Prior knowledge:
The structure is a single chain. The protein contains three helices and four strands. By secondary structure, it is an alpha+beta fold. The protein has a four-stranded antiparallel beta sheet with strand order 1-2-3-4. The protein has helices at residues 13-25, 34-43, 80-84; strands at 2-6, 47-54, 57-67, 70-78.
Amino acid sequence: MMHFKRIKTVDNEIFESINLLYEYAFPHHERRSRDAFEQLTLHEESFVCNAIFDENQQVGFINFWRLDGFIFVEHFAINRVIVTGK
């Protein structure tokens, strides 16, 4: 069963694996610097960084903004290798 876990700290292996996938899945010009990503995750309440798990295995992430009247999905990635084993 898939579930999401909001990430509010950056000093753990979950954030590290999110950041690795983030850097791999998106070109430099489509992502924030590591420092900016960390600062948003730690301090911006309207920014949500969620790890995505399938059972107990982390398979991806989704970053979005909770804005007035809508949610804006900024980045979403699933690690195909982890999910399919290929």
